[in-house]
Amino acid sequence: MKPTVRIKPTTDSSAMPSRRQFLKGTVALSGVLASGTLLATLAPSRAWALSTSHLDKTQAESLLAMAKRLYPHKTLPDAVYALLVKDVDEACSDQATRELVIDGISQLNAATQNNWLGASAAEQTAALKTMENEAFFQMVRGQCIHSLYDNQMAYTHFGYEGESWTKGGYIRRGFDDLTWLPNPSEAASPAVI
To answer: How many domains are contained in the chain?
Structure first.
């Protein structure tokens, strides 16, 4: 459940919760977009942050690492992978889902000698392979597909311009623009008789 803090009006400063108590239930993941990347030029700021309400920092980082291992893209910024963490954290408002996620992360740790985040890529992959038929793995894998690839940051990163219907379709918007391929030889394109 989402922690709540109730502040009662009072003149006694000792009765007020401390900043630490107030922030106790909130965790933040943060990072910086690499300069020179397309996303960094489009973003209003290179810094990004994500707050979680239901997962602690280690659990959030574990999900981030799992997403990066399941769908590795060398140049995809962590800010895009963090969208998975945000979506899973929101799903964890349901107690059964939260327990599934916490148990799944515990299994990942157990499979890597209690060091999922510090395990090598091969060890993480081996741990994930042992869990691929379990509900936790399937839930995170399925959510990754939506969270990682169905957002404007991913579209920009991968060069997808989005749907074309509202822009008049693809026929007049680059359907036959093959500037990234060499021109075919004459033999590959014989004259029409």
So the answer is: 1
